[in-house]
Amino acid sequence: MENIADQTYIVENVVEFSPQEHTLYSKVNGNKVTLLASASECFLCLLENHGELVTKKELIHIGWEQYNLHVSDSTFNQNIFTLRKAFKDCGLNHEIIRTIPRKGLMVSKTININLLIIKNELVDYMPVCKDSKEVDHTSPTKSQKYSKFIYRITAKLQLNIFIIILIITCASGIVNGIYFTLPTSYLSNYRTILEGDNCHVKIDILRSALIDYKKFISSYNLHCKNSEYIYFSTYQYVPRISVFRCNHEFREHHRNDCVSWYFLDKKI
Known about the structure:
Order of helices and strands: EEEEHEHHEEEEHEEEHEEE
Mean pLDDT: 78
Distance between the termini: 49 Å
Low-confidence stretches: 130-139, 174-182
Number of domains: 2
Pfam family, one: Trans_reg_C
Radius of gyration: 23 Å
InterPro entries: OmpR/PhoB-type_DNA-bd, Sig_transdc_resp-reg_C-effctor, WH-like_DNA-bd_sf
Transmembrane segments: 159-182
CATH class of the largest domain: Mainly Alpha
Keywords: DNA-binding, Membrane, Transmembrane, Transmembrane helix
Helix content: 25-40%
DNA-binding region: 6-109
């Protein structure tokens, strides 16, 4: 194929997977889930090896090591878990990614995978298969190689930008005495769940519950005092916690003295 502009994998004729955008889109319920770049890279590798076992070592190299990143077993497993959950949110409740104990992962041959290729305003719709007699993929054209090169460069750039943003966010957590004002709309979903004992705790009610906060403080030694205000929020799909501890309650056009934390490993 020449002049390939985009590729989309169709899983079980229900979910569209875009490796370029790192997204899953359900044609059944309309849900669109954005994946972590590492999880997207791992799933693309499984699709490129459809019906074959891919070792955990290979997936770790694809998702992290080729970018000089280290990943723990728990983080790797969490990425696979969120990937499976994303498929359920898109309406596929049966097993798409199969675990082979102590060996690796695979997308079984019984899972229907099709590849949608868009080129020059024309769409070719064909099943993903190996050693096909009708379509010869063994000799990629220069355009295919160039397209794959551009995709890899784009994926690396997106991952690097994500890492830079993550570092900046974490660094802000160790800076004490920063004065800033947040817009009222940012905190419109926060509600007070605890008051008294020199402490005011507010949580994002769209993301978190009181039990989340109680489990959090049982795992981390982070308590407020002197009538401080705690703003607490968890995140959907990813193990992240955001905490602001401030001397005063947030009000529009008023400065506040706060310390922020961004926890990467959620223990709740």
